[in-house]
Amino acid sequence: MSLGLAVARRALLLALVALLVAVVALVAAFVADSGSDGAAGVVDTTALAEARTAAAAAQASAEDAAIMSAASAAKADEAAVVAQEAVVTAQQAAAVAEAAAAQAAVAVEALAAAQQAAASTEGDAQPAETSDGETGAEPSGAGTDTAGAAEAGDTAKPATEAGAGDTNATTDTQDADVSDTGGDESVEASTDDADASDAGGDEPEPAVSLPGEPYESGPPDGAALAVVGVSHDSVLNVRDVPAGEIVARLDNVMNVGSEPVVYVREPDSDALIATLDLNRGVIATGNTRRLPTTIWHEIRMADAVGWASSAFLSPLGDTSDATAEVVAVLGETPGAETLVELARIVAAAVASDDPPSRVVVSGAPVIGDLGEVTVDVLGLPDDAVRGFRLQVFAQQDPVSGSFVLKSVESTTICDSHRGVSEEGLCN
Description:
Blueprint: H1 2-34, H2 38-121, E1 155-156, E2 173-174, E3 213-214, E4 224-227, E5 236-239, E6 246-253, E7 261-265, E8 272-277, E9 282-290, E10 295-301, E11 304-309, E12 313-314, E13 316-321, H3 323-330, E14 335-336, H4 339-348, E15 358-367, E16 371-378, E17 385-396, E18 403-414
C-alpha cells in the first residue's frame, strides 16, 4: 500500500512540474508577442505555438499522472483489504494451533497415565509361553487347557538327585508355573509358627499381606493333591505368596523303574528339601487366593509351605485299565515310531475337541522289557472330571524299532475344588 501511494505522489509531482513549465512558456510567448513584429513576429508566433504544444503535453502528462494516481490508490485499497484478510486468517490459524496444542497436551497426559497404569500392572499378566511338546503338532483334540495351564511363563531346569534313580533330562525347559509376577514379601518355608513370640516376650509379627482375595472354591485343608499338566522335563514353582518369590520347585519323577515320587528341591539348586508320594504327597492347607488372571492354592510339602498355581494341582481318582476303550475309539491297536508319538495317539482317543484338551507328556519315555510313557490329558467338558493321566505301555518291534500299544492305565484327574470320594470318584 505505501508503494502505491509513493508512485501516485511522484506522478502528481511530475504533472505539476509539467504544468508549471507550460505556464512559463505561455507567459514568455505572450510577452514576446506583444513587443515584436515582422519576421520577429513569425518567430514569436512559432515559439507561442511550441509553448502551447508543450502546455498541452504537460496537461496530458498531468491527466496520465492523475489516472496512475487513482489506479495506485485503488491497488493500495485492494492491498489493504488483502492484508486485513491475511490478519483474520492468521488469527484463525493461531486459534486452531492453540486448540491443537491443548489437545496435544491432553493426549500427552493420557499417554503418561496409560504408561503408569501399564507399569503398575506389568507384573500381573505377562504373555504366556509354551514348552516343547506341550503345544504345536498334536493329534486331534490336543489343544489348550481351559483351566489356565496356558498361562505358563517362567523357565526352569529340573534337577537330578545323584543316586536317587531319576533319569529325567536336565535340559532348559518351560516351567509350569503361571506368568503372573509380583509379591515382594518373603515367607519362610514353614509358616506354622508365624504367631510365636520370641524369648523377650514381644508381640507376634503381623501376618504377611497376601495378594488377591480369598477364594472359596478351593481344596479343603488336608486334601491330597498331585502335580499335573507339567512336562517331564520341567518343574512347578512354589512361591512364598501368590505370584511371589520362588521358595521351592516340585519335580515329578515317573517311569524310572522305582516308586514314582515328587522331589521338593531348593529354588536355585539341586538340593532336596523333601521327597513326597507322587499322587498324594502335596497337601492343601485350605487357603486359596484369587488374582485377576490366576487362582493359587497354599500347599504343604512335608515341613515346607508355599503357594502354587491351581492350574497344575489336582486330586487324583481311581485307576483303571482303558486299553479296550482306547482301541475301540481308534478302531485299531495303534503303533508309532516313538513312544511319545504313540502316547499322543492314545491321548487323542480320550481328549476333547470342544473345549480342546491340552496334552502333556508328564512322564519321560523309558524303554525296558516294555516301553513306558505317561501323558496327562487336561481340559474336558465336565464340571468334576478335569482329565486323565494315561500310563501307556508298548511292545517294541526288534527289527523296525517302532512301538505297538500293549496296554493303557487311566487315572482320573479331578477338579481341585470338587475333590475325590472314598470310592475314588470325582465329586
